[in-house]
Each structure stands twice: as C-alpha cells, then as structure tokens.
Amino acid sequence: MLFRLLFASRAGDKLDFIVGDFGSVGPDFVWLDANVLQVVAGTAVTCAPDKLPCGGTCVNPFTREATCGGCNTSCGSDERCCDGVCFDLQTDRDNCGYCGRRCLSPTPYCVAGQCTY
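Now predict its structure.
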C-alpha cells in the first residue's frame, strides 16, 4: 500500500504545500520551524516548488538565514536572507532596514537601517 501525504503550512500570507509518497510504513515528521518539515523516518519528501530538499528536510532558500541560497550556506549573525542572498540590512542601500527597501536620492546611503544622505 502506498501513502500519499499532503501537508499545508501558512507562512505569512502564502500557503505552501508539501507532498510525499511513502511505502507501507508511514513516516514520522517533525516541524523544525514554520518553514522546515523534516522526515524522521521513511523516504525522502518531495518539496514544494519554492522549497529546497536538504538532507531530508524542505527548507526555504529565499528567506531562511540558515539555508540562504542553498543547503550548505548560511548568513552571518548580522545578515538577513533576501531572495536567496545574504545582506546586512543596517548598511546595504538596496535592502536598507528590510529586504527590498532601496535608498534613492536624496537619501542614497543606508546607515543603521535607515536611508540617509
């Protein structure tokens, strides 16, 4: 007998689905955090299109600092993951204070997470 399991998790305003096919023994799952489902026993899980399989878990490589851009990459303690790239939100003029906030003229510089001149 084959089991098909469908899991849904809500991350902000987005609903993510994870589907896995497993043999006659159902797997055990553990949610490591809001974005990571880990298979404890059983076969590998199939991840949603915006997730990446990393060692039996489905991770978000676009916003999760521990897997920013890939399985074996992580951001520094003072960086945040924005679309799969680590940035210092305190000084980066294209991600100032939060991801995607650009500092433009007349305040083209990012200092302490604020656009300034």
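The two ends are 65 Å apart (CA to CA).
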